[in-house]
Amino acid sequence: MSEIVLVHGSCHGAWCWRDLKPELAAFGHRVRAIDLPGHGQSPCPIEEVTLEAYADAVLAAVGRQAIVVGHSMAGFAIAAAAQKAPEKIERLVFLCAYAPRNGLSLVDMRMEAPRQPLLAAIEKTEDGMGFVFREDRIRDTLYHDCPEGTVAYAAEHLCVQAISPQATPIRLGANYEGVRKSYIRCAQDRAIPPEYQETMTAGWPDEDVHALPLGHSPFFADPEGLAALLDRIARGT
Length: 237
Fold this sequence. Notes:
alpha/beta; Rossmann fold; six-stranded parallel beta sheet
């Protein structure tokens, strides 16, 4: 069985993997969900939250070697980690995530997409250093297909997202390119346009691209189905 490290997206934390962790453990995998700096139980001054700090947090969570799953903006965090220490990464799994390209920031890629549905769902903090999700938009944008109670649970935990790591161009090279990768598209995603998820994986081997008929939070919408898919990816089947 595999060691699996779960890395959350914008404004989230380890809490969002609540329902997925036991499903993966039932397959026999060793599972760890982490809080990136400035999220959840990992407090950090917003001016110290960087893309490099994200990468270091991912690597600190890995034992000898792990499959690292990154949701949404965490595609950048896990890619940066693979560039720094590829020997610690068995496989990267991008879960309806940004699959970065060298020299671009997440903001660059978000604006490259044919639509920017997130822009209407977020608002900057007064200091301009972060953003939060608008309470009246989180259901429709993030959790529209999730069970009753999900929105209330998430609203208690969502936090400020630092802008700096998302505005930092990523530097990727041979280390990152040499790591095995899989992508899971979500066909009903209302945060990252599904058509842009297809664009980001153009040219990837068919066996490394998977699809789920879900929105942006499949770990809440169908944790059992997502766990089964991650198990198949881990087993290489």
